[in-house]
Amino acid sequence: MSLLRKAERCFANQHTHKLLTAFVAAPKDVALFQQDLQAADERSKEGRGKSPIDGQLIAIKDNICTTEEPTTCSSAILNGFHSPYPATIVEKLKAAGALIAGKTNLDEFGMGYIFSPSTAASIKIDRHHRSHSTNSIYEAVKNIYTQNGDALSAGGSSGGSAVAVATGQCDVALGTDTGGSVRLPAAYTGIVGFKPSYGLVSRWGVVAYANSLDTVGVLAKNSSIARSVFDAIKGYDPRDPTSLPTSTRLKIDKHVTNRRAKLQRSSSPSLRIGVPREYNTEELQPIVREAWLKTLQKLRELGHTIHVLSLPATKMALAAYYILAPAEASSNLAKYDGIRYGNKSADREGTDNVLFAATRGAGLGDEVKRRILLGSYSLSAAAIDNYFIKAQKVRRLVQGDFNNAFALRHPLLPHQGQSSQEGQVDIILTPTAQSLPPTISSLDKADPLQAYSADVLTVPASLAGLPSMSVPVSVSDGGSQDLKEPNTVGMQIVAQYGDDDLVFDMAWVIESL
Ligand code: GLN
Predict the structure, then answer these.
(1) Which domains does the chain have, with CATH numbers?
(2) ipTM beyond 0.90?
(3) Cellular component terms, GO, for this chain's entry (predicted)?
């Protein structure tokens, strides 16, 4: 199909699915967009495309800066904010010939809710300010899937990007993943969601939530498209101090390639797939557990071997994440004071402190304020030892667990000698989420623990900075199916740091099962 026809189809889908509120801004300069599209179409017809993603329509999560459209992070404090510069990754996409399809909806600054409905009621949280990409100044994002006519959650916080891809409103979308925000919505909407190793993709121009965890990820219909977008956006960026320099990337590539060459030469080129028993939680819905088992079974039939292993710190990972992420957020969000950044409150009387308080009071949502308070508290002299420092220690344990499990040594850490599990697995396979997407209306009544633990399976890989992807596997039995209900479950692939290629290879195997 020509690029022009494909784009027309995306626009028609944007119109049809308007009420799902995936997009919050369309491309500003329509004439320029049309011109770029025409040019890409001609290049494609003449077989001189700039890259594999030339002419692709890519949606951008609204916490990633573009210059034509506003960048709001779905927050009132940035409503109407225009960045003076684009994110490096946006520049890279454009240089590869891709077209920006618009900006997508998210949970405010990427933060879903963590408080129970009863707590929420007692502190009078606005009913609409809840998670699953529903915690937004815009309308809540809605999944294409419904249950008995009730809209399902699209997952958060990159829910807008996920729905835009799942409903064909664009070809691919960028999201950000701090604790699971690309993988969870991918799982809930039946598409793939890839989170790269920390430091491979530039964060320059990406609004920071928790720097040590933030990554930019890709949401796509399949892993091959996601791979070409990842190839286009990765690379060293001197403007991002956490971006890995080229020499380190080369070292990592060599390390990973050596291992893979050894694997190819060995008598069994099959993969050793790790199954961590801590991920088989009580809360796992039977349909999710069945999909997990079935996928493992099929992989075994292909000749891969399955190894049950233990990642003992998993149980503490979620608690550590919800100390560390808010702590970093409290520092990052201090700049939204109405002077350096953010919409200034109309109440300008009094001292700066009054202005700051009025600006933040009016501009930030309840969940964001809670994170800032929680983070400021855990960093305070009285609490830092008991909370922040302990959480950092847990983070080390989580990293250590993964290092013990993977055959491949972490390329950036000193060799720590053999452990009992070392050498065991090449890749880890778990479900992405414990359940199918809940209905949005049920979020109000949800068991608080269930809501709190939506990210429980995705957070460990984030704490360890590892590459990870959610890939949909079918759960339909081929019988009469209500196409409106979810018919896939997300499987999460996790690999050693720098082994992003193996994640894509594994995703391809799972997609072909
Ligand atoms: N739901 C998690 C949070 O609110 C994950 C967010 C993310 O990955 N951006 O912190």
Answers:
(1) 1-309+393-513 (3.90.1300.10)
(2) yes
(3) glutamyl-tRNA(Gln) amidotransferase complex; mitochondrion
